[in-house]
Amino acid sequence: MSTITIRDVRTILTAPEGINLVVVKVETSEPGLYGLGCATFTQRYLAVATAIEDYLKPFLIGKDPQRIEDIWQTAMVSSYWRNGPVLNNALSGVDMALWDIKGKLAGQPVYQLLGGKCREAAAIYRHADGRDLAEIEENVAAFMEQGIRYIRCQWGGYGGRNDCVTPEGALPGAYFHPDAYARSVPKLFDRMRERFGFELELLHDVHERLAPIEAVRLAKQLEPYRLFFLEDPLPPEQLDAIRMIRAQSATPIAMGELFVHPREWVPLISGGLIDFIRVHVSAIGGITPARKLAVLSESFGVRTAWHGPGDVSPVGHAANLHLDLNAVNFGIQEWYELTDRLREVFPGCPTVRNGYAYVNEAPGLGIDIDEKLAAKYPCRNELPEWTLARLPDGGPGRP
Ligand code: MG
Q1: Nearest CA among 48, 107, 96, 83 for reference residue 321
Q2: What average pLDDT does this structure show over 365-381?
Q3: Which of 88, 244, 298, 326 is an S-S bond match for 114, by CB 3.0 to 4.6 Å?
Q4: How far is the CA of 234 from the centre of ligand 1 (A)?
Q5: How far is the CA of 311 from the centre of ligand 1 (A)?
Q6: Among this protein's residues, is 356 annotated catalytic?
Q7: How far apart are CA 55 and CA 50, in angstroms?
Q8: Contacts with 397 (C-beta within 8 Å, 6 or more apart), sequence order
Q9: Which helix (H) or strand (E) holds 9?
Q10: Is residue 312 within 8 Å of residue 320, measured between CB atoms?
Q11: E strand or H helix at 183
């Protein structure tokens, strides 16, 4: 039997592109055998680091790294109160690292351990925004030139056009106008379909910024534009309105990037109320719960659309892709450009060609980290402005 044990668990904080990333390195008693995992919760990275260093590390040292399921289950309940983005991200860092180690021990990429490939690469979507329609068109056209066939269009970031008339003394923040935003979206897609036709797949993210009844109206209005999906029309706090959206529109719905407990998706999946699960894989605890969620979704015809923005580390992007290659019900993979700088810090990054992302075929997740280089890009404990959302009257909004 295996005598390999976990020797050390280390947290690596780095921000090569100015976005705080949290990576976990699990080292084993076997010389040179270690794994990497993504634990990135950009806005609370220090809390995640504490959860790893002060709580998970002492829990894990001396344990068998091959017992992934057992470690996941016992670590999750070891605090008795469980779940939440801080603890789940911390556990994800460990979980992905253990899958990485298991792959290295087997001499196989992680997708092989999940059951092998259903496809050679994952189709990706990119995010095109702009201050005006002409700029969005330009950005869409530039992605099409690169062979991208799925594009998420946003007018002014996530609809954050600041044409609000605020009261005197209104507090600073990222102001946006939900009604102006809702009116702008059908115009946006009218223009995009007119310019690019219907061969291109178009997506849109509401970012949970509308009142439920406005989300219903928007989903109906967007129906003629045949979106690939409409993302997060409702916040986790107001999910009941999904039945209204569903009853009144055939616009495909992707939901859940803010969910942190796998059970949150269950009624939406089993009730036929969504078409794609949006999941920030590290926020639910890593590959172990994500693959189960993918399998549950398969039974109900729901496809996967793992969250893949800049606040997922390249290790997390690699983990997403290993899941994508295996899942029969893979839908689409959100993609963020892994810049040359990120590729230097994380050797072995996935590559993109003609609209498809490919994993590195090396054993495990296929990705490494240059810790010396990573240390050159320290994280900064500052909130991004977009998280400080405010409504036209100065009241708090949802980012
Ligand atoms: Mg989103």
Answers
A1: 96
A2: 98
A3: 326
A4: 11
A5: 12
A6: no
A7: 7
A8: 173, 176, 178, 209, 389, 390, 391
A9: strand 6-14
A10: yes
A11: helix 178-196
pLDDT per position as a tens digit, 318-344: 999 999 999 999 999 999 999 999 999
β pairing state of 122-130 and 34-38: unpaired
SS3 358: strand
pLDDT of 2 reads: 59
- The catalytic residue among 127, 207, 280, 322 is 207
Which fold would CATH assign to domain 113-361?
A: TIM Barrel (3.20.20)
| One-letter amino acid for residue 91 of the chain | L
∠ CA 247-199-183, nearest 5°, is 50
Q: Determine which one of 45, 111, 125, 158 is catalytic.
A: 158
> For this structure, is 158 an active site residue?
yes
**Cα–Cα–Cα angle for 80, 319, 271, nearest 5°?**
65
Domain extents for the chain? Answer: 6-110, 113-361
51, 395 Cβ separation under 8 angstroms: no
Distance 154 CA to ligand 1 centre (A): 11
The contacts of residue 244 (CB under 8 Å, 6+ apart) are 212, 213, 216
- Side chain identity at 165, as an amino acid letter? V
Gap from CA of 111 to ligand 1 centroid (Å): 25
Q: How far is CA 84 from CA 71, 81, 229, in A?
A: 18, 9, 27
> Ligand 1 centroid vs 230 CA: distance in angstroms?
10
Q: Starting from the edge strand earliest in sequence, which strands make up the sheet with 21-28, in order?
A: 6-14, 21-28, 34-38
- Please say if the pLDDT value at position 380 is more than 70: yes
CATH of 6-110, one of 3.40.50.1000, 3.20.20.80, 3.30.390.10, 3.40.190.170: 3.30.390.10
Q: What are the pLDDT digits (tens) for 262-280?
A: 789 999 999 999 999 999 9
Six-digit token string for 9:
């668990």
Q: What tokens does 12 get? A: 């690596």
